[in-house]
Amino acid sequence: MKPNTTSRQPQRANNERRASRKLNKPKRPRGPQKIILFNKPFNVLTQFTGEEGDITLSDFIPVKDVYPAGRLDKDSEGLLVLTNDGILQARLTQPQSKSPKTYWAQVEGEPSDEQLDALRSGVTLKDGPTLPAEVERMVEPPIWDRVPPIRERKNVPTTWLAITLQEGRNRQVRRMTAHINHPTLRLIRYKMAQWTVDDLAPGEWREVTLPSSQ
């Protein structure tokens, strides 16, 4: 008579799922919590190592055991949050946390109200529909010059947009503005959660702390 293994299989699967959740659960830092705000310049990789000739975070930040909360493309600029706290890192990056991120995007041309309303409602990209976004026209912000400067056509105007997302797909802002036929020429992440890039020049960083209530 063969042993009945049917009832054991669901139990084994449940145990494996529980073990997997324990392994993947973000952890608090073993030492003091570290939070670094960094103004990432153009053409810098959002990692501490790279190929020969790459400019990486290690060229600017001497603090050990901190990791970026999310990525910022090499050709994008602005606020990057680094931490040694896995729970905070997850809270800032996981879609279910809906942690807001505000970007300043300089786009080619002058989007119409209807086109901006499409972004506000959500557009369908190759990886599915986006969540509704906050999108507003803005005056050109008083920011640093980009090195090298953007390539723009002198006979085509540009528009600055403030775009706030609650998700973080790969190159999402660029793909959203391209979807409405106004490609992004320059992209700066201005704000992430409660932190902004204010008072940080490109390549500068500072350490901050969370309020005790958080």
SS elements, strand count? 11
Instruction: Give helix % range.
Output: 10-25%
Provide the structure class: alpha+beta
Radius of gyration, whole Å: 21 Å
Distance between the termini: 59 Å
Number of helices: 4
SS strand fraction = 25-35%
Q: Average the pLDDT over all residues and give the rounded result.
A: 87
What low-confidence regions span 5 or more consecutive residues with pLDDT below 50? Answer: 19-23
Can you put this structure into words, describing what you see?
The chain is an alpha+beta fold. The chain contains four helices and eleven strands. Strands 1, 2, 3, 4, 7, 8, 9, 10 and 11 form a nine-stranded mixed beta sheet that branches. The longest helix is centred in the first third of the chain and has 17 residues, at 8-24. Mean pLDDT is 87; it is low at 19-23.
Summarize this entry quickly.
With about 210 residues, this protein is of the alpha+beta class.
Summarize the helices and strands and which ones pair or pack:
Blueprint: H1 8-24, E1 35-40, E2 67-68, E3 77-83, H2 86-93, E4 101-108, H3 113-121, E5 124-125, E6 128-129, E7 134-138, E8 158-165, H4 172-179, E9 184-192, E10 195-196, E11 205-208
